[in-house]
Amino acid sequence: MDAANVIEVRGLVNQFGPQRVHDNLDLDVRRGEVLGVVGGSGTGKSVLLRTIIGLNRRRSGRISVLGVDTEAAGRREAEALLRRWGVLFQDGALFSSLTVAENIAVPMNEHTDLPKDVVREICYLKIGLVGLPADAGAKYPSQLSGGMRKRAGLARALALDPEILFLDEPTAGLDPIGAADFDMLIRDLQQSLGLTVFLVTHDLDTLVSITDRIAVLIDKKCRVGTIHELLQDQHPWIREYFHGPRGRAAMKE
Amino acid sequence: MTPEVGWIEGKHERDALVFNAGGAWSMRELARLVREVRAALPSRAALGGRTRARIDLNRLSFLDSSGAWLVADTKRRLEAMGVATEVVIGRPADRALYDRVEKSLARIGVLKSPARPHPLLAALGNVGKTVIDGGKKGGELLSFFGLSLVLIVRAMSMPWRIHFKAVFKHLETTGLNALPIVGLLNFLIGVVVAFIGAVQLKKFGAEIYTVDLVGVAVLRELGVLITAILIAGRSGSAFTAQIGTMKVNQEIDAMQTIGLNPIEVLVLPRILAMMIALPLLTFYADMMGIAGGAVMCMLALDISLTSFVRTLHEAVELKTFLVGFLKAPFCAYIIALVGCFEGLQVSGSAESVGTRTTMSVVEAVFLVIVFDAFVAITLSILEV
Q1: Which of A69, A170, B8, B15 is most deeply buried (CB count within 10 A of its CB)?
Q2: In whole angstroms, what is the distance from residue B137 CA to residue B121 CA?
Q3: Size of interface A-B (CB pairs under 8 A)
Q4: Is-above-0.90 flag for pTM?
Q5: Coil, strand, or helix at residue B194?
Q6: C-alpha torsion A231→A237→A243→A248, nearest 10
């Protein structure tokens, strides 16, 4: 495995019944980059993310994250690997019976033996880092707005200071200002914490403003390039995605 | 992830405290580092008059936000002791991270530890809160009862407004599908009652009166009570879960915006179906209970079926049956009402659905038994 890659996918095949979603898919994610992952509905963006993090069993292929082959890894190795990435699900997926601070504490309590007061302080640090006010810590997820829930989910994903951050449609459902703020927050945290970001999204504005490269799920495989390379691409779906009315609007800056 | 170990040591000069640190200051090392730092920090007495300190992180190989927190926290503790602290970090990326973390902490401010009330007072407070909440809940349930009565009367006068398809669907799930379990359970209860009665009455040579016992107990009390409790657990909870999930999915809101009355569409059919199903199930339960008793009498007491039936005929009368049977519609109303009420009380989350479902069963069973006891006492006073 190339040391500059944090994730390497080779020959991935995902199939549900008769439907083959990914056919011999290859993908490299480089250390320190923000990779946007796009594709039409049903092309398997979320499936790809879920397969890489182990929530979905692949049909065949090899996936290696941070140098560890995820299928061959033993239990302890797999557990150690889990601590090195964080996942933000759509709408946060916060535990509804715990407060925000307690949510962020869950990975710490599970994987470390830090004393309670230290855990609490670090929870509030993460709350501050994602831009939530201090009083959000004592609130329950049902008491937060959508934007705040996503930030709380992000704080929990960052609880163990991971190296990779997986985001599943983070700006879905946010108003334009909230979405722009969230984009900036991701970019900001990525730079100051040195994260590699795997970002599944539909949001053209996110793609234009914060991604380094974009992986397009096309024909059950991945085509990767920078936004400028993709703008020149002749594939009909890619042309329509980036040069359609919304694409042109997002590009106007 | 660097495998290097994080460390800190104090190498104090005459007029300043100096802490040298290095290695990896990361989440992985944090538990150990916290202990080392706490050990390395001098107490106020050991300061020796020094008012300056320096934390030197030039030998740091790795820093993440948790490590940066620990540095900031150490600085804060020193400054709380009146020691002005300087943090020296070599690499610009680490410095940027540290500054950012410090800024976040300054924004959050000092965390107050959560106030812990005295446990005894908290317990007393909880008792009071439960009583008040219970009273409030009773009031709300009463209003809901009134609302349902009004709508039922209106439905009787305008029968075309009743959603008959829904009524039949609930009749099937609440009544028809419950036949196997209601039958089985009541049969077994009949067996048990006959057995206990037979053992006791045999002492007086009066075992024939087991028939009386079975007949009166099943018809007056057990048939309706066991069935009502069973249906409360089975269908009452289902009503709460169904309506509660609809509430979480905003289906109730959608109904209201279309102009449908949720009580009319959801609650009324359930109440009507239950009020038809439960009495029928009670009748069936009575039969199964007596059948169970009969089987037990045949097997244990050698009472033939014909003599069982003849003795039963003398022991019970229509009144015995009616006392039990007429309780059924009221129990049905209680169960359906409580089930739907709790369903509508569900607030936004999945956990709420679970809590309310539990409460609905407990409340329904409680009210059914209270009602039953009330009827039993009244009838005994009236000598019915």
Answers
A1: A170
A2: 24
A3: 68
A4: no
A5: helix
A6: -110
pLDDT in tens, B308-358: 999 999 999 999 999 999 999 999 999 999 999 999 999 877 788 999 999
Contact A37, A30 (CB under 8 A): no
Q: From B283, B62, B272, select the one nearest B167 (Cα to Cα).
A: B272
Q: Which of A96, A121, A128 sits opposite B73 (nearest CB)?
A: A121
What whole-number distance in Å separates Cα of residue B238 and Cα of residue B360?
10
Question: Closest by alpha carbon to B269, among B143, B152, B145?
Answer: B152
- Tell me how close the Cα of B107 comes to any Cα of chain A, in angstroms: 7
Q: Under an 8 A CB cutoff, do A120 and B111 touch?
A: yes
φ and ψ at residue B252, rounded to 5 degrees:
-65, -45
| ipTM of this complex prediction, to 2 decimal places | 0.81
Chain A residues touching residue B101 (CB < 8 angstroms): 125, 129
- Whether the CB of B66 is below 8 Å from some CB of chain A: the reply is yes
CA distance B132 to chain A (A): 24
Contact at CB, A192 and B1, closer than 8 angstroms:
no
Q: Does the beta-carbon distance from B351 to A97 stay under 8 Å?
A: yes
Between CA A167 and CA A154 the distance in angstroms is 9
With CA atoms as reference, report the closest residue to B4 among B22, B21, B23, B20.
Answer: B23
Arithmetic mean of pLDDT, A28-38: 94
Buried b (16+ CB within 10 A) or exposed e, B194-212: bbebbeebeeeeebbebbb
Query: Exposed, middle or buried by CB within 10 Å (0-12, 13-18, 19+), for A18?
Result: exposed
Tokens 């009541």 appear where?
B186
Each residue's pLDDT tens digit, A117-136: 999 999 999 999 999 998 99
Residues of chain B with pLDDT under 70: 1-3, 113-114
Minimal Cα–Cα distance from A153 to chain B, Å?
17
**What single string gives the DSSP state of each residue in chain A?**
--TTEEEEEEEEEEEETTEEEEEEEEEEEETT-EEEEE--TTS-HHHHHHHHTTSS--SEEEEEETTEETTT--HHHHHHHHTTEEEE-TT----TTS-HHHHHHHHHHHH----HHHHHHHHHHHHHHTT--GGGGGS-GGGS-HHHHHHHHHHHHTTT--SEEEEESTTTT--HHHHHHHHHHHHHHHHHHT-EEEEE---HHHHHHH-SEEEEEETTEEEEE-HHHHHH---HHHHHHHHSHHHHHHH--
- The pair phi, psi for residue B67, each rounded to 5°, is -65, -40
